[in-house]
Input
Amino acid sequence: MIAFIAKRILSGIVILFSVVTVVFFLFSFSFPNPEKMAVGQRTDIETQEAIKKEFGLDKPLFTQYLLFVNDISPISFHKKSKRLKEKYTPYVAINIGKTTVLIKKPFLRRSFQNRVKTESLIANSFKGTLVLALVSIIIAGIIGILLGVIAGVKVNSFIDQAIVFVSTLGISVPSFFSAIILAWFFGYVLHNYTGLNMTGSWIDVDPFKGEFYQWKNLILPASALGVRPLSIFTLLTRSSVLETLNKDFIKTAVSKGLDSKSIMLKHALPNALNPVITAVSGWFASLLAGAFFIEYIFNWRGLGKLTIEALEMNDLPVVMGSILFIALLFVLINILVDLLYVKLDPRVKLT
Output
């Protein structure tokens, strides 16, 4: 177990390093003069030069890359400086000659637009994305498994064919298209009956009451985000139930005279749901990343909306920080999914 986790962590570090490299050079070549984006096109040359020096943009590109890796690494190397405390706090410093080794949390730099730390912006925005993804995966998991079991039990019936048709349609339709249709139909056409809005975040601001939760705004974006995973879970559950019902131990249970309800609940479902639960866990990371366009369409305050707005304003530290954060989530969740799969299915061995 320990060797497996260590191997996966090492693999995750390699993946994150690759993402860091690709993202840095991609945006460096796409936006060759980020200092103009930081202070505006009409700012005088002296101000632009000061900004370049502040963010290290006056150095060669490869040196900028090394400085960026040094900032986001939990272990970094620096010349002794009084600015380390204000930049990297909290940290543990180890002085080796003229070099200071820091053990610290990753520093994703500051936003070009408001000079706020990127990790603070990500932390505040990620709460909305996490709520949206959690509600979506719970709804998709419960309804998808229920429909899949019904379709598997009533195979080749009209209900089965209808569920398969709708699920196939749900997989084929892109999430952003589902979002637009749901927002228009339930938030505009049927607004007087549903009371739902086309756009809106989970937190609203009242000039007298301050901030308050507006949970009804969660219904449409969570539904739009959950359409594809719900359809996949339905078909996966149906396929798994059909496969399990044809196993020898189910036929043995039938021959012993057990009723169909007991066979399904005590024997078939526990075995059939193993791959489905694993898929649900794996899809959670995808929903965290896939929420980008859903948040933008519904004006939902989350990590996706923050990233797209930062991209529109060429706020590179925020864009790169968000992408690296999502990559880290994928790595961690994939490790957890592998461990969960082994726990659910003892036949699978850790390698």
